Amino acid sequence: MRALTAMTLAALLAPPLHPLAGQNGGMLEIGGFGRFTRFDSSLQLDNGFGFGGHVGLFAARVFSLEIAGAYIPTTGPAGADSVVLPLYARLVFGAPVGEEVSLLFGGGYVHTLYGTSGTVADDGINALVGVRFGLSEALAFRLVAIADFVPSPTIPGSSVSSYWTFALEAG
Questions:
Q1: Taking CA 10 as the corner, what is the angle to CA 5 and CA 16, rounded to the nearest 5 degrees?
Q2: Residue 23 — very low, low, confident or very high, per pLDDT cuts 50/70/90?
Q3: DSSP string, 90-143
Q4: Pairing state of beta strands 48-58 and 28-38?
């Protein structure tokens, strides 16, 4: 927590620098990632690795509108194989902290489908914090942490009143 506070303070106090190359209004960012997800214990799902992708449309040099999705195979109650598919729509702010580095802060909506048939779904909000490293004119690497909060789950037969899910993505 201290490191995150220090990074945030440094970003706010740093002199304004140029966004990464290619980040102008109207530009698209397309990416893939690997993901580790820690599910709330109330969901009775095993934590797991998955993959996904995102598409961001830069509305301005430091703001993008992003949609993203992930596929996470997992095991549920009684050892049953299952799949979790979180789908995101969010606004992301990229605070430049160097010529090729931006701190990322974002938030928005999450719609999560559960099970191999996708018949169970929940809606909630999400927050994102991370860093983007520009590797070349057209290539970047992102490392982000995501928190999803579902205030009113619709899980059949469950008494869960709300839950959190946390994830780390790299790609």
A1: 140
A2: low
A3: EEEEEEEEETTEEEEEEEEEEEEEESSS--EEEEEEEEEEEEEEE-SSS-EEEE
A4: antiparallel
> In the prediction, which pLDDT does 148 show?
98
CA atoms lying within 13 Å on the CB side of residue 63:
5
**What is the pTM assigned to this prediction?**
0.82
Cα dihedral 148→152→157→159 (10° resolution): 90
pLDDT tops 80 at residue 46 = yes
Q: Look at residue 77 in the predicted model and tell me its pLDDT.
A: 77
76: tokens are 């549920």
> How far, in Å, CA of 84 to CA of 36, rounded?
12
Q: Residue 75 corresponds to which tokens in the numbers above? A: 């095991």
Residue 19 has pLDDT above 60, yes or no: no
Looking at residue 77, what DSSP letter applies? G
18 secondary structure, DSSP code: P
